[in-house]
Amino acid sequence: MSAVLEGFDSEKEDGQFRLMVEDDLDTVITIEEEVYPFPWTRGIFHDCLNIGYLCWVLELNGKIIAYSVMSVAVGEAHLLTIVVPQSEQGKGYGKKMLNEMIQHAVDDNASTLYLEVRTSNKNAIQLYHERGFNELGIRNNYYPAEQGREDALIMALDLSFA
Question: For the whole model, what pTM was predicted?
């Protein structure tokens, strides 16, 4: 799989994927709290690591510039989160992480990759559309929000075409 990533020149910026480990959680929580008004807790990430979800980070020069969590079971994958620190957004790292997670889902014999995304997250929705995800429906009041709850757009990617 190859993709042209805006802002990411692999010859100049040698980002490396690796499994997330417990020692990453201080950094991951710092990024999570910077990016989201309702961040995941350390306990959530700890549980994801311990139950065998695919938890990956993208590192550049020893610094985490993206991370993701995905579950795979019974031929289906569910992308739970992709996060890029605010200082690194718009450089193609989210796309790079998404492509990596799609490849892991394919390698684990998933036929479909599902995700939910806030309906207000237009940049993420555009990225998912560009990568071939289809809209399946809406989960009403799915995410906590400053003014109550926000709906989630349910999206899916047929991995037989990935």
Answer: 0.89
Segment 22-59, tens digit of pLDDT: 999 999 999 999 999 999 999 999 999 999 999 999 99
Whether 56 and 20 have beta carbons less than 8 Å apart is answered as yes
80, 141, 149 from 98: Cα distances, Å: 11, 25, 26
Token pair recorded at residue 83: 């996060």
Nearest-10 Cα torsion for 125, 126, 130, 132? 20
Question: Which of 55, 7, 61 has its CA nearest to residue 32?
Answer: 55
Upper half-sphere CA count for residue 162 (Cβ side, 13 Å): 23
User: Which among 77, 118, 68, 55 is positioned nearest to 96, based on CA atoms?
Assistant: 68
- Answer whether residue 77 shows pLDDT above 50: yes
Q: Which residues are catalytic?
A: 116, 128
Helix, strand, or coil (residue 84): coil
Burial tier of 153 (Cβ tally within 10 Å: 0-12, 13-18, 19+): buried
